[in-house]
Amino acid sequence: MILLKILLFASAYNGMCQRIHKELEAEMHSISIELSSNEQQMLRAVDDFQPDLILCPFLKHAVPEKIWRHHLCLIVHPGIEGDRGPSSLDWAIASKTNNWGATLLQADAEMDAGDIWDTQTFHVRNTAKASIYRREVIATAVHMIKNVLHHSLNNVDFKPRPLDYSKPSVTGEYLPLMRQESRKINWEIDSAEIITRKINAADSFPGVLDTIAGNEVYLFGARPEYSLHSSTPGEILGHRDGAICRATIDGNVWIRQLKMAPQGERKFFKLPALHVITKQFPNAHLFENLRALNSRLQNDIKIETQNAVAYVTFDFYNGAMNTEQCQNLLSRLRELRERNDIRVIALMGGEDFWSNGIHLNCIQASVDPARESWRNINAIDDIVQELITMTNKVTVAALRNNAGAGGAIMPLACDKIFAREGVVLNPHYATMGLFGSEYWTYLLPRRVGDAKAKELTESCLPLLTTQAYKFGMVDKVLLEDWNTYHQLLQRECEALADDVNYFALLSRKQYTRMKDEAIRPLEAYRQDELQHMKTIFDNPHSEYHHLRYNFVYKISCNQTPARLVYRKEEEKMAQTA
Ligand code: COA
Q1: Does residue 362's CB lie within 6 angstroms of at least one atom of ligand 1?
Q2: Residue 207: CB within 6 Å of ligand 1?
């Protein structure tokens, strides 16, 4: 295979862009990234890097003609062949499509109408748009890009085909931007299933605009529920795990997150729904006595036990863990610690993320963000401490989804890390202006050594689990296919529970813990990390407060970080290596 200089144009260094960056780098291509939408900057990036190929994994704007006329530019489009427009997945979900796809097409004068290099389909799960994007679209895009690089570019006979709507196989069409009128919920007519679908089609962006008690809000994170007593459609019945339960004509629907619509200059960001109605609504008093409900469906922390293994799912929206969520998870882990029928505890994370560390939105929304940051970091540290000191069980981090910051350190507290192929880890804090905690100063060097720990935390770059495996940060990489991963994981966990050396393993774990404690007490690591964190939290001018503000309000500096731009010195080093 020829090794290429590949320039990535992207509107954000998001999960898709991170994965493609790392996958291509792993195949020894040289990668540079440009995040700006400014034509001059894009042209400069091309001039500086002189790429053989330009790839656009996630681009919300058009590629300038001056670029695509002279360079091969391939665009990942989250739709089937012939599909065009900015709301592909939204329309696919709204129309209950069973099969959807992704297409790799060439940039051309008309948006999404260029020649087709590859197109592949997948089954559409009944879930949120962002979840399908993160799992199916990304996996399909990676597959197509690798295919094209392996076969098409090396094969002189390969010719991309023009988009031809007269072919029966081309079933996509141009669909416009989906506006709020098409997303609107009619509570008098729409069933719980329809409302969920409408919210799914708009999740994580832009959400469905609705009105609650006279307040305009965007709805996110829907789950239908049929077991609770119904009342007037739209009415709020109660809450659980920060979500609110609203009545529908045929049952109920849980809404996990809300975002207040802008009020003049004042902008808002996503928060747990209960927080918004009880803290942000001017008429919050209406919800003072809202009931706490029990529900099997709206239950962020689920524990399933089978053959002496407890699988703990903590499905927190966006993988962000606020203080109360951490406390709840900790108490569930403590219960499991006492159970004699459990030998192995597998931490599964959520459906879309494993964990992204402390909850920056909840911190931003609190009355005292410095204090809330402190509470949150201590609460997550308590979980990590519980895992490190859980010497009567074998613990497994089932890294089946991406993890970032403290959420990428937490798995290291487990005895074994079984990751899913394609998962991207961001084990660093500096991009949020933080020193970091979660016992990273103990856990990371213990796993990967001092030099690698320094490199990972200072370079602030993502890594694939296959790369993490090479230097011992992950114990096993299991296949990416969701069902296969779970089958293999179960086999691994049951093998651990069944292992004739199970008690020897626990003895070794206890011994290592005692030895480590004698060298440096766990508490010393925590105090040292937290001292750094406290200095940052308590300084109102620290970078962290500014970066967190920009993060939650999605304020972009519209500049590509230097770490993503290919440097000439690296090229020279690669040539001499
Ligand atoms: N707190 C609150 N929300 C968070 C979050 C956190 N710690 N981490 C991610 N999110 C949210 C994002 O705001 C985004 O929200 P959206 O639904 O409005 O789009 C969503 O999760 C997905 O995140 P995104 O950044 O789009 O995903 P990604 O795959 O492109 O990038 C990370 C993943 C982890 C690199 C990135 O989200 C990140 O830097 N998060 C902050 C991690 C952090 O600093 N945590 C605190 C220190 S422990």
Answers
A1: no
A2: no
Using the predicted structure, report yes or no on whether residue 84 has a pLDDT greater than 90.
Answer: yes
Residue 381 sits in the same domain as residue 307: yes
Domain containing residue 493: CATH number = 3.90.226.10
Cα separation, 51 vs 44, whole angstroms: 12
* Whether 371 and 430 share a structural domain: yes
Supply 492's token pair: 């691994």
Whether cis (ω within 30° of 0) applies to the bond prior to 540 is no
Spatial CB neighbours of 254, under 8 Å, sequence gap ≥ 6:
221, 222, 223, 224, 225, 240, 243, 244, 245, 246, 295, 297, 298
Domain membership of residue 389 (yes or no) is yes
Digit-coded pLDDT (tens) for 259-299: 999 999 999 999 999 999 999 999 999 999 999 999 988 99
Identity of the amino acid at 347:
L
Q: What is the pTM of this model?
A: 0.96
CA of 232 to the centre of ligand 1 (A): 36
Measured at the CA of 176, the angle between CA 172 and CA 181, to 5 degrees, comes to: 125
For residue 258, what is the enclosing H or E element?
strand 252-260
- pLDDT (tens digit, 9 = 90+) per residue, 338-394? 999 999 999 999 999 999 999 999 999 999 999 999 999 999 999 999 999 999 999
Compute, in angstroms, the gap from residue 503 CA to the centroid of ligand 1.
39
> Which domain CATH number covers 233?
3.10.25.10
Going from the Cα of 347 to the center of ligand 1, the distance in angstroms, rounded, reads: 20
In a domain, 519, yes or no: yes
Q: What size, in residues, is the chain?
A: 577
For residue 361, give the ligand 1 atom closest to its CA: 2
Task: Please answer whether residues 415 and 391 qualify as being in contact, where contact means their C-beta atoms are separated by less than 8 angstroms.
Answer: no
Does residue 295 lie in a domain region? no
Domain boundary residue among 287, 322, 357?
Answer: 287
Nearest to 116 by CA among 153, 156, 81: 81
Q: Are residues 236 and 378 in the same domain?
A: no
The range of the structural domain enclosing residue 200 comes to 180-287
402 lines ligand 1 (CB under 6 A): yes
- pLDDT at site 569: 59
pLDDT in tens, 228-258: 777 899 999 999 999 999 999 999 999 999 9
| Residues 264 and 229 grouped into a single domain | yes
CB 303 within 8 A of CB 319: no
Q: 179 Cβ partners below 8 Å, 6+ apart?
A: none
Indicate whether 71 and 26 sit together in one domain: yes
pLDDT surpassing 50 at residue 304 = yes
Number of domains the chain is built from? 3
Determine the residue of 259, 318, 381, 410 to mutate for testing ligand 1's pocket, defined as the one with the most ligand atoms within 8 A of the Cβ atom: 318
Q: How far apart are CA 377 and CA 369, in angstroms?
A: 12
Q: Are residues 319 and 277 in the same domain?
A: no
In the 3-class helix/strand/coil scheme, how is 301-312 assigned residue by residue?
Answer: EEEEEECCEEEE
Q: Judge whether residue 191 has pLDDT over 50.
A: yes
Tell me whether residue 157 is in a domain.
no
pLDDT at 577 over 50: no
Token pair belonging to 261: 């619509």
- CA 304/CA 342 separation, integer angstroms: 11
Residue 568: the pLDDT is 64
